[in-house]
Design goal:
It contains 11 helices and 16 strands. The protein is an alpha/beta fold. A hairpin with a 4-residue loop joins strand 1 (about 40-45) and strand 2.
């Protein structure tokens, strides 16, 4: 047994329902732009690539596709003039008044440095593969800030006790009945997973970081995010990453009618199939909240429900050194690391975390590698 295993905390077994923590907002550097309707203009660097994300609200009388394109082109030009070193500019245009994260954008685009001329030369919002026009989609449910800390079973107390007992019995193998808790503790491999993908600004920086580290991961994708930013989903697959299902709207599933649960999971899988030609194999319920019905529906849809062994709480705005220490404390052979694709500190600590894993003799990779290591 490797010496560091003796210091690891126990595997996180399923708990009863718990209160979600508030989601703090990390302050990001901003661009100062004179642009009507500008909601925010943030930029960030991973040390190699600098990206920006501009969010604008658009009055109804200026929301025609040609007008949206012209506004996006103007915004891009201003961003590049204000910050010439930008390697990527992402644009999200919403109806006015800005609906916040509960709404769908009208128009989105991703413009890497090498595609700036292509984008600025457009006369109509077509013929550019990193542009999305909303075909009339509206959210059917508001997203919920259900945060993953520990897998939490909801339902009668008697069922929770039975579930925990079954999980303890299954923990030697880490897998039972379509549920994956962890991989083979004797294999030098841990899964690297990111929840809530994709996000403008962050996803391009994270993909660039993973490429430089030569790492592959599993991204649990929110269906409505995939709809609005389809080019990022295609980027994930093109760069060899694995996609998992994280529901369509990112809502707490326990307590919903069975058909609503099925709709949330199935709608996400259908979006990913349409965008990539591949159906996801893995599912993670938002917040790790589940009950018997959630597991049964996922299993019926051919999905393996994936939990985790290492959640450092990167969403909580931790200083990078604290995040790195928490990751190190639970990293283990057969482990499943849970991170998020839209956290600044996560970008900062990934290189050090990759070196740590390598120093411990552990390979990091997608969830599918855990199942291969069980054989």
């Amino acid at each position: 047994m490797l010496p560091f295993l003796l210091m690891l905390a126990p595997l996180p077994y399923v708990e009863g329902p718990g209160a979600a923590k508030p989601l703090p907002k990390e302050p990001l550097p901003t661009l100062s732009l004179s642009l009507p309707g500008l909601v925010r203009a943030n930029y960030l660097s991973n040390g190699h690539l600098e990206a920006a994300h501009l969010v604008l609200e658009v009055p109804k009388d200026k929301a025609s596709p040609p007008s949206l394109l012209r506004l996006a082109q103007e915004a891009l030009s201003l961003a590049l003039a204000a910050r010439p070193g930008l390697g990527e500019v992402d644009l999200s245009l919403y109806p006015s008044p800005y609906p916040g994260p509960a709404g769908f954008p009208l128009f989105t685009a991703s413009v890497p440095r090498e595609r700036v001329r292509d984008f600025l030369a457009l006369k109509a919002p077509s013929g550019y593969d990193r542009l999305w026009l909303n075909p009339g989609l509206v959210p059917r449910r508001p997203p919920e800030p259900v945060l993953e800390d520990r897998p939490r079973l909801e339902g009668p107390e008697a069922y929770r006790a039975k579930e925990k007992a079954e999980q303890v019995r299954a923990s030697r193998l880490g897998f039972r009945g379509g549920v994956l808790y962890h991989g083979n503790p004797g294999a030098p491999y841990a899964a690297l997973t990111f929840d809530d993908a994709p996000h403008p600004l962050f996803t391009p920086l994270l993909l660039d970081t993973l490429r430089r580290l030569d790492l592959k991961a599993t991204f649990f994708v929110i269906g409505r995010n995939a709809e609005a930013y389809p080019y990022f989903v295609r980027d994930l697959v093109a760069q060899g990453h694995e996609l998992g299902n994280h529901t369509y709207h990112h809502v707490r599933l326990p307590g919903l009618p069975e058909e609503a649960i099925r709709e949330e999971i199935l709608a996400c899988s259908e979006v990913l199939l349409r965008l990539t030609g591949q159906s996801p194999r893995y599912f993670r319920p938002p917040g790790g909240r589940y009950d018997r019905t959630v597991l049964a529906v996922a299993r019926e849809l051919g999905l393996t429900t994936v939990f985790w062994t290492d959640d450092p709480g990167d969403y909580a705005g931790l200083p990078p050194q604290v995040l790195e220490a928490r990751l190190a404390a639970h990293l283990r052979p057969g482990g499943i690391v849970l991170l998020h694709d839209n956290v600044r500190a996560t970008l900062e600590v990934l290189p050090a975390f990759a070196r740590l894993a390598q120093g411990r003799g552990l390979a990091l990779g997608p969830v599918s590698g855990l199942l291969l290591a069980r054989r």
